[in-house]
Amino acid sequence: MSQINLLPPELRQRQAIRRNTSFVIVVGLAVLALIGLFYFFQLQRLSQTQSDLADQQDRNTNLQSQIDALSQFADLQSELAAKQQLVATIFVNEVSWSSALLDVSRVIPDASYLTNLTGQITATVAGETAAPTGGTPETTLIGNMSFAGVANQTETIATWITRLEEVQGWVNAWVNSAQEDAPSSRIYTFSNGLDLTQEAATARGQGEVTTP
Amino acid sequence: MNRRAPLVAGAIALVVAILAVFFLVLPKMKDVSEAQDQLQQAEDQEITLEAQLNSLQDAQQEAPQTEQEIAAIDAAIPPTADLPELFRLLQSAADRSAVDFFSFTPGTPVVDPSSSYSTIASQLTVSGGYFAIDEFLFLLETLQRAAKVTTLAITPSTGATGEATTTTSSSTLQLQMTVEFYTTDTSAGPGSIPGPTEGATTGA
After folding, report:
1. d(CA A57, CA A52)
2. pTM score of the predicted model
3. For the complex shown, is ipTM > 0.85?
4. Residue B14: its chain A contacts at CB < 8 A?
5. Is the dihedral of CA B181, B133, A178, A144 positive or negative?
């Protein structure tokens, strides 16, 4: 027995089109729903972020008000820093002459004495600080000392020069003259000098201490 | 029904979806992104502010010490030349070190080119034994008032008979030196504006 489809082909085709159309519409609506859902999440995120931002700004405002209340202490620190800078400028390359005199008393040989001692530090440039540009503390010259004295035998003068170089920051020890007082007397009148490097400067002269 | 109906429906759905994405979702995502950037900036700012606050709180705790240091520096570099106090300090140092305070010639204050302080280069002469002079120099270096010895010369002191003594430790020596004292008064000395003048550029 054969089956006969009495439904016309146009109707079948129409049903298929309707099914397809419905499917497309459902899929379209689903996509739109997903987009709507995503949009909703974005709204939520935005709302949450703006809320967080408002809280954060409140905290920042609070912090800023605390900072404003303490600003006088920042001014105090700035004032101290400016004054310390002034101290550093003033004392740049300062030499402790009291220490220098003690060093002289330590290194001078027994068979000699001094008749004159002078010292000076180089005038500093305005605004110069202890840290020099170029050169090291061992090689940057900041002043000099000169001596005149009397020594028994030239060996004493040689010893004197050698010992002067042993003092930290004292370099370039040099004898300007050594003259025997009388023939065969072996008593010599001498004059000599040396340079002072930055190592001879005090701690505040080297910028390590910023208080007077 | 038209055969193109599914295509039309699909096209309409696609267009609506694209429009929704472009006109709703993307602007909102941009808003979220901007808000997050702002939040990040605010959080970064909080870190900076907290560091600043901590620093200030430290400064607050150290304030008494800071004020002491400022006072010490103000005493060392006073707002006026204050010669009377300087005389007293030098005489006290001379007395403590047992040297004879022989002469003191304060120079005219010279304003530093930075106009932040004036230098009073003074000539000072004392006489005494070698170690007394050494002690005087030490007291000068540790004086309440900032002092920097720029030149010094030690020679045997000429006695009443005119003869010079020549030994280093037992005889009387004379110390002549140039000492710089300082003041923040940039208009100090004779002919200047009376009182402290900080930061002015007028000469002494």
Report:
1. 8
2. 0.75
3. no
4. 28
5. negative
